[in-house]
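Long-time lurker, first post. I've been practising inverse folding by hand and with some scripts of my own, and I keep getting stuck on stretches where the structure tokens seem ambiguous. Below is the full token string for one chain I'm working on. Before anyone asks, I'm not after the true native sequence, just a reasonable design that respects the backbone. If someone could post their per-position residues I'd love to compare against what I wrote down in my notebook.
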């Protein structure tokens, strides 16, 4: 790494806005990949001869590697240097994407997806922690995290559009190959532009027991939720996996409280503001991921939309997120405490979801889906922006990587829970509805109508639960997060229990 990779502490980096461009590009690539492959999956399954029973592993292999290795990736960024880790993650992600696009069989595809997840776990926390240590002035920090939050929130929906266009007009393999130019441009730009503040590394020896327990615990937890979706919550293996994950994660916490140089210092998650962010963000992602799934099913199966048309149907939500994050959140963050953005933001998003509980077979896009999506986007964008900034609130530079990894971990686990839990609720409500109404359907056309009505009934039942989850997220944000607006001198509890600290959400004190 060149000597220009490090700058003097306390001096703003002249290239920080250029650096943000490449960090945002990398973040967009990672978030896009979470949804773009869903659109391409049916075509890839057919070409590679993947069975129906194994097709979920194209998604699960990525989720397990990404979710399981995030904390380790964050610690590597603190130890090895965030710029170096960021560039290595980008190069590895590009290579894994090339392997996936060139896959000739099931094993090659699953291996490529696991490698993508592993390099994504290096890349994601390094990207967020670079922002945290480069932007410390409150107004600039608000703008930078506004852009990052908009991409983190809206990038997944962009994946639906891009995935639909690439699959429909080119080939499913391009949903992998499209990552390569993203990664090369971001890596080259980052190498020449990013300069880390000096003295921000954590050179303590690696906590090997913590690494092993965190990987095993998180992989087991994510897999348990994935299995619950396919095999049911009462399945003995599913229950065993949940018990095992609880034991492993409890052991991880015990080890972290006793070792000299922990993988995840408990001070990172026990500070009430950061803890409130991780919990409320995880809850919001549970609701949001489930909704993405149901709206996609509704638009394609019930309304007959093509993949491309479905993708474009999500555009108003992306627009809402961009406005909420870069206009509302960024403009107000330096004027009001973060909880006054996060809690109302989650409630506005809940209102948008409440409108979507009115979905019926005959609902029109403009009357129900459009207003619901706009409110959902505005609310989530407004809430995500301060959440991303607060995720590294008050941490020392040496902990910035692992604190950033906790945001991604809460999102990843939230996504796994949301998909499994809300899918189960929807499936149960659908089955119950069809059983209660199929007897009165005489003709085949009437039976098909009951089947569709049952599916929509299942979606709206699950969305009701998502509304409740967002209300809980708003409550958590309002009660846990008590820091003042950036630049104020509100007294809050510090990590170490000191009497007071400034409420400026910057990394170094």
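-- Answer (accepted) --
I ran through it position by position. Result:
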């Amino acid at each position: 790494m060149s000597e220009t990779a490090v700058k003097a502490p306390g001096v703003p980096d002249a290239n920080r806005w250029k650096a943000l461009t490449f960090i945002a590009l990398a973040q967009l690539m990672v978030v896009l990949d979470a949804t773009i492959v869903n659109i391409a999956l049916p075509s890839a399954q057919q070409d590679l001869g993947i069975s129906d029973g194994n097709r979920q592993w194209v998604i699960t292999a990525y989720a397990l590697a990404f979710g399981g290795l995030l904390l380790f990736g964050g610690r590597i960024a603190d130890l090895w240097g965030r710029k170096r880790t960021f560039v290595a993650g980008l190069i590895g992600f590009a290579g894994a994407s090339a392997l996936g696009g060139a896959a000739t069989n099931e094993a090659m595809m699953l291996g490529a997806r696991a490698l993508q997840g592993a390099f994504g776990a290096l890349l994601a926390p390094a990207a967020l922690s670079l922002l945290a240590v480069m932007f410390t002035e409150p107004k600039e920090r608000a703008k930078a995290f506004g852009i990052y939050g908009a991409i983190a929130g809206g990038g997944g929906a962009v994946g639906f559009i891009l995935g639909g266009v690439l699959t429909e007009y080119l080939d499913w393999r391009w949903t992998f190959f499209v990552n390569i130019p993203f990664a090369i441009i971001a890596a080259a730009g980052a190498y020449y532009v990013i300069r880390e503040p000096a003295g921000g590394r954590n050179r303590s020896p690696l906590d090997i027991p913590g690494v092993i327990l965190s990987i095993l615990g998180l992989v087991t937890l994510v897999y348990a939720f994935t299995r619950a979706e396919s095999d049911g919550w009462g399945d003995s293996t599913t229950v065993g996996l949940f018990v095992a994950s609880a034991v492993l994660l409890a052991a991880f916490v015990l080890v972290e409280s006793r070792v000299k140089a922990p993988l995840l210092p408990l001070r990172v998650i026990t500070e009430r503001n950061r803890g409130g962010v991780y919990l409320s963000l995880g809850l919001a992602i549970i609701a949001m991921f489930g909704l993405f799934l149901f709206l996609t099913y509704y638009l394609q199966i019930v309304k007959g939309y093509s993949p491309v048309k479905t993708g474009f149907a999500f555009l108003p939500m992306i627009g809402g997120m961009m406005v909420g994050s870069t206009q509302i959140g960024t403009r107000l963050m330096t004027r009001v405490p973060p909880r006054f953005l996060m809690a109302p933001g989650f409630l506005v998003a809940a209102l948008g979801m409440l409108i979507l509980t009115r979905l019926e077979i005959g609902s029109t896009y403009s009357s129900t889906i459009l207003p619901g999506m706009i409110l959902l986007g505005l609310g989530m964008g407004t809430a995500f922006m301060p959440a991303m900034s607060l995720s590294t609130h008050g941490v020392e530079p040496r902990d910035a990587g692992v604190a950033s990894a906790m945001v991604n971990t809460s999102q990843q686990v939230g996504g796994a829970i949301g998909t499994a839990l809300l899918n189960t609720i929807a499936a149960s409500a659908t089955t119950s509805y069809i059983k209660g109404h199929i007897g009165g359907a005489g003709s085949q056309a009437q039976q098909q109508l009951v089947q569709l009505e049952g599916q929509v009934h299942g979606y709206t039942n699950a969305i009701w639960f998502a509304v409740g989850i967002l209300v809980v997220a708003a409550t958590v944000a309002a009660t846990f997060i008590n820091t003042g607006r950036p630049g104020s001198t509100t007294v809050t509890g510090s990590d170490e229990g000191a009497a007071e600290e400034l409420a400026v959400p910057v990394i170094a004190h």
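A couple of notes from the structure itself: The chain has a mean pLDDT of 80. The chain is about 75% helix and 0% strand. Happy to go over any region you disagree with.
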